[in-house]
Amino acid sequence: MTHRRLEVISNHLQPTGTFPYYNADMSTNSLFKTTLAPPDVIFELTASYKADTDPNKINLGVGAYRDNDGKPWVLPVVKKAEHAIVGDNSLDHEYLPIDGIKQFTEASVRLILGQNSPAIAEQRYASAQTISGTGACRLGADFLYQFAKGPVYISNPTWANHRAIFQNAGFDDIREYPYWDPKTRGLAFEALLDCFHKAPNGSILLLHPCAHNPTGVDPTLEQWAQIAAIAKEKNHVVFFDCAYQGFASGDLEKDAQAVRYFVSQGMELLIAQSYAKNFGLYNERTGCLSIISKTPQGAKEASSQLCKIIRANYSNPPAFGARIVQTVLNNPQLNEEWIHQLKTMANRIIEMRQALYSSLLTLKTPGTWNHIVDQIGMFSFTGLTPAQVKVLRDKYHVYMTTNGRISMAGLNTSNVHRFAEAVDWVVRNVQ
Ligand SMILES: Cc1ncc(COP(=O)(O)O)c(C=O)c1O
To answer: Which segments constitute the Aminotransferase class I/classII large domain (predicted)?
Structure first.
């Protein structure tokens, strides 16, 4: 028995000499005594929605695409790729390289930077396949914790997981930059710029390049240029979390323009990509982290460090999702089909924005509602208060986050007017 083990046992010996394992009051003696962690808001919301037996319930919580029948959609092009993979006898279940499938990571970099990016031509990038977008954010945070100093700036508000990811990576100085202006229901641009200007040199800026979660508000390209100028001047480290390329506008190129602009300015940066939304591969956990460096040598070094972090974490990534994505992205015909299906998803969401807006206008719901159609991407930040959100849930069986965010994909032609009527009621009757 090791010294450490003896010590643990002697610390837990009772006066009678019995081990705690036989003590009736186990909780006070557990080696793992802790407190109950709060449940995850989104996953809890989905569980409550599933438990609700009302036939008219509406789930606007989780950011996952639904078709007009409220069902998850497996993209036909994904099905095609799956069949091709299953029928390919050359594929096996050997371990992948630590940084994943090369055809996948290379295609991912082309997708976000563009075919003709100088960073690609000059081999100034390091990429690793990751456990979806969350894993890409975490890998990037782990890397930055070792090689950058911070503080870390996340937007106010932001995706609920950002703070926790950076905290768990070890950062203890995580600050917020202004993003949402409740008065204009738009971007608090001047305040954001001012914050980046005053931030200590070398701060880490976590930015959403398109379809900002939760607000659905993105800077214009001119505004991105001003953000890039300040980031460059102050040597800030830019980390783009790109979970929605193609979802925001239905246009892959347009949704990548912020990232491409920063790269065109010669900036070093990190990019997290997720294929959960734009391929509908939510549970395949397929993503990519790329680091754009100034030199090929810098990229090589970054790549080796990413591999070192991954090896000690999950060793190497799973294959199936990345095989699907690389099959599609590297085949011109399948790629065309994917772009078409991506547009189908984006357009349905845009139509729902219009339908919700029209219903609220028809009902003459007090307030202005242009933001519903001005915002883009998966989410809309409605401006509804926590009290109104609660009544929507209790009285109308509508499930959404307390901050008033709705996932547009949860709306369809059968429920959108009913939802508008519920909103109309709470706006008139609840503060
Ligand atoms: C801003 C943002 N980043 C990252 C993610 C990560 O998603 P996933 O890990 O499912 O790819 C999400 C998902 O909702 C998101 O909204």
So the answer is: 56-423
The confidence score (pLDDT) of residue 4 equals 45
Q: Torsion angle, CA of 350/187/112/149, rounded to 10 degrees?
A: -150
The stretches of 330-385 forming alpha helices (DSSP H) are 332-362, 370-374
Residue 140 has pLDDT above 60, yes or no: yes
Domain range for 384 is 41-73+347-429
Q: Is the pLDDT of residue 386 over 80?
A: yes
Q: Per-residue pLDDT for 109 more than 90?
A: yes
Check whether 353 has a pLDDT greater than 60: yes
What is the 159 CA–ligand 1 centroid distance (Å)? 8
Which helix (DSSP H) or strand (DSSP E) does residue 131 occupy? strand 125-131
pLDDT at 25: 56
Work out whether the CA dihedral 230, 233, 236, 242 comes out positive or negative: positive
Q: How many domains does the chain have?
A: 2
Q: Are 381 and 186 in contact (CB under 8 A)?
A: no
